[in-house]
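Supplementary Methods. Inverse-folding protocol.

Structures were first reduced to a discrete structure-token string of length 529. This string, shown here, constituted the complete conditioning input.
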């Protein structure tokens, strides 16, 4: 409209100044003065037009538009009335301009009203001119002809303007909707970036925080717990006043969560459903499933009715959360598998004791810390090599299950006998090895071996209907420090154990390897059983 008004501010004065106006009847006002006044009025309206301010309030724009239409109409009527008193003149055509402006700005109804006022103005102008000037006669035919033109132009312009206005409104609404969707997607994308953590708590916290930015004030998450549901809320309470705590959900929220979990699709409860559930205090409720690996692990609950676009954004958020939670579960399962494999690689599957590889690692760590132990006044180290007596007979006569049970009991008894800082491992079969850390001398190591044999022989092992007593032969190797080759202590203890077997079972053979293999002393003692 500003451009059209600027063109009118130039063209109307030009039309006034170039028109061959008759001397009788002469214009009421000088065409030059009228041209300056009209141009000034139209240009002034353009200067103060509030539409130039993008942030102007809609009501202000509408009120100013009414004022502008009034000024434009007054300018055109002034030109036609003061300078176009000749009925044969063409200035009456200017009356179409306000009609067109009204149609474009306010639609058909306003343009029709203004059309009627223009018709009245035109008829009044001709009647006034015929009464004012002798040379002017009132011609009904001319009036009807020109009024008909005004009516046709006015109605056609009003219809076209109405269509144009509706189309412009649709475009504006579509643009606003696109902007709103873009903002929603930006919030969803930002929440997705924040959900990249594999921490489950962070995922749910970000899921609760994102809808607040979408204009959802009352939102929470229902988690399945056994056969029921517990809730955690960001604001308000669909299912109870829950804020970072576990609370039972109310009937409406439980029913909604159950239905969503069964169908794995979003559901909406309207006022009628909530009235039937005894929750008339809520305008509505919406639930969106959070699906992890095909199962509904939680439900996003909103205590209001939301638009389709907002529901789509909530579904995107729930889908992203489900994908991240699935990754978190897969990562946790991989970690559990790695931990289980690492445990199995270093532990005996039957007894749960460390295996040979684990025992070697502990010996090597003891050897690496030996220098520090010596500086701090640490004591020596001993290895006990234990081989059960008569275990093959148990396996052959009572079966492998009885043999396995025997090994489990023996492992438990040895573990309970040694000191907290010592280590016990199963090397395989019926062979066990014990690392005695910070042992004062060979006698201390031998005393530990005696305690183990005493515990083994103290009570029989019940194997179904049978009871067996299991003894052992023990080889003991002692040194002031772990040698450069830690396996040497195990080999010495193994050799001592075979010496105990050779001399008669149920014995302890101790080797003091203080200065190496060239200066060894051995002591054999039989333990009565």
């Amino acid at each position: 409209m500003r451009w059209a008004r600027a063109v009118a501010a130039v063209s109307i004065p030009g039309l006034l100044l170039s028109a061959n106006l008759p001397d009788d009847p002469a214009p009421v006002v000088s065409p030059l003065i009228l041209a300056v006044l009209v141009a000034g009025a139209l240009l002034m309206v353009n200067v103060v037009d509030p539409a130039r301010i993008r942030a102007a309030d809609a009501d202000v724009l509408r009120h100013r538009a009414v004022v502008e239409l009034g000024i434009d109409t007054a300018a055109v009527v002034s030109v036609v009335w003061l300078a176009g008193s000749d009925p044969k003149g063409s200035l009456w055509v200017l009356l179409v301009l306000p009609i067109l402006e009204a149609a474009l700005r306010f639609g058909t109804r306003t343009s029709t009203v203004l059309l009627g006022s223009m018709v009245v103005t035109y008829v009044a102008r001709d009647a006034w001119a015929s009464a004012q000037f002798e040379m002017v006669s009132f011609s009904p035919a001319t009036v009807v002809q020109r009024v008909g033109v005004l009516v046709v132009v006015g109605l056609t312009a009003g219809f076209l303007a109405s269509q144009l206005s509706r189309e412009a409104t649709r475009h504006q609404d579509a643009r606003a909707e696109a902007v709103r969707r873009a903002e929603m997607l930006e919030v969803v994308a930002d929440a997705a970036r924040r959900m990249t953590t594999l921490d489950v708590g962070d995922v749910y916290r970000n899921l609760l925080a994102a809808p607040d930015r979408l204009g959802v004030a009352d939102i929470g998450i229902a988690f399945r717990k056994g056969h029921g549901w517990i809730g955690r809320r960001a604001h308000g309470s669909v299912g109870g006043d829950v804020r970072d705590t576990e609370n039972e959900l109310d009937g409406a929220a439980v029913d909604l969560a159950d239905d969503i979990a069964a169908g794995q699709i979003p559901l909406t409860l309207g006022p009628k459903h909530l009235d039937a559930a005894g929750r008339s205090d809520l305008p509505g409720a919406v639930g969106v499933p959070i699906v992890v690996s095909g199962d509904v692990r939680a439900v996003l609950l909103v205590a209001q009715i939301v638009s389709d676009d907002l529901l789509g954004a909530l579904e995107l958020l729930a889908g992203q959360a489900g994908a991240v939670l699935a990754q978190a579960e897969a990562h946790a399962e991989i970690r559990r598998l790695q931990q289980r494999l690492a445990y199995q690689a270093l532990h005996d599957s039957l007894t749960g004791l460390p295996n040979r590889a684990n025992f070697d690692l502990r010996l090597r760590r003891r050897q690496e810390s030996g220098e520090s132990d010596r500086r701090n006044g640490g004591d020596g180290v001993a290895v006990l090599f234990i081989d059960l007596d008569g275990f093959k007979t148990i396996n052959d006569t009572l079966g492998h299950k009885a043999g396995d049970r025997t090994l489990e009991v023996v492992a438990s008894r040895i573990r309970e006998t040694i000191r907290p800082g010592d280590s016990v491992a199963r090397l395989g079969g019926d062979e066990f090895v014990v690392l005695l850390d910070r042992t004062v001398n060979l006698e201390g190591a031998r005393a530990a071996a005696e305690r183990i044999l005493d515990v083994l022989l103290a009570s029989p092992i019940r194997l179904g209907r049978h009871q067996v007593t299991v003894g052992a032969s023990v080889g003991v190797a002692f040194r002031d420090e772990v040698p450069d080759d830690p396996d040497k202590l195990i080999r010495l203890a193994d050799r001592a154990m075979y010496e105990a077997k050779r001399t008669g079972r149920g014995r302890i053979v101790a080797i003091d390897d203080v200065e190496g293999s060239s200066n060894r002393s051995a002591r054999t003692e039989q333990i009565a059983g």
